[in-house]
Write a structure and sequence with these properties.
With 177 residues, this protein is mainly α. It is built from four helices and no strands. Helices cover 67% and strands 0% of the residues.
Length: 177
C-alpha cells in the first residue's frame, strides 16, 4: 500500500487531540476490507451449530447479508468521485497529477476474496472435520461407559433373580417337606 504512487502518508503534525485521522489511505483500505471481513465471518460461522441449515432459509439474515454485500461492493468498486465515497471519507486512488489507479481496487477485491475463502474453508474444516471427529470419540467413550454400566446392571438383576429363586426354592422346601 505504502509503495503505491498515489499513497500520501498522514501528516502527523495536522492531527489534533480528540480528532480521529480517518482520511488516510490506510483507513480507506481498512474500511473496505473490514466490512467484508465482518460479512465473511457471519457467513462462515453460520455453518456451525445451531444453524446447520442452508443460509437462505433464514430470510432476514440472508437479506441483511445481501444488502451488506451490495453496500461493501459499492465501497470497493464505485469510482471515488461521488457522494457515496465522500460520505464515508474514502480517498481516491489517484496521484496528485490526476492519474487514476482504479486497478488497485481489483487487488483489494482479490485480497477480500482470498480472505473469504480462507475464513470459510477454515471454519468448514474445524466444524466438519475436527469437531465431528472429536464428537465421534466422545460418543464412543460414552457408549463404552454405557455398555459397562448395562453389563453391571444385568449382572445385578441376575443376582437378584437368583436370590429370589433360591429363596423361593428354600420356602418351597420348608413348606413342602
Amino acid at each position: 500500500m505504502r509503495r503505491q504512487p498515489f499513497f500520501v502518508p498522514v501528516d502527523i503534525s495536522s492531527l489534533k487531540f480528540g480528532r480521529i485521522a480517518n482520511e488516510s489511505y490506510e483507513a480507506t483500505v481498512l474500511f473496505m476490507v473490514a466490512n467484508f471481513q465482518y460479512m465473511s465471518t457471519c457467513i462462515a460461522f453460520s455453518i456451525a451449530e445451531p444453524f446447520r441449515r442452508p443460509i437462505w432459509t433464514n430470510i432476514p439474515f440472508f437479506v441483511c447479508l445481501c444488502l451488506i454485500f451490495v453496500f461493501n461492493s459499492l465501497c470497493v468498486f464505485l469510482p471515488s468521485d461521488n457522494w457515496f465515497s465522500n460520505a464515508f471519507n474514502l480517498l481516491p486512488f489517484k496521484t496528485k497529477d490526476g492519474t487514476s489507479y482504479y486497478s488497485w481496487r481489483y487487488w483489494i477485491a482479490l485480497g477480500i476474496l482470498i480472505n473469504f475463502i480462507v475464513t470459510y474453508a477454515t471454519e468448514k474444516l474445524i466444524v466438519n472435520v475436527i469437531t465431528r471427529k472429536a464428537d465421534a470419540r466422545k460418543l464412543k467413550k460414552k457408549e463404552a461407559a454405557f455398555k459397562i454400566m448395562m453389563e453391571q446392571y444385568r449382572a445385578l438383576v441376575k443376582d437378584k433373580e437368583n436370590e429370589f429363586t433360591d429363596r423361593d426354592e428354600d420356602n418351597n422346601n420348608e413348606f413342602g417337606a
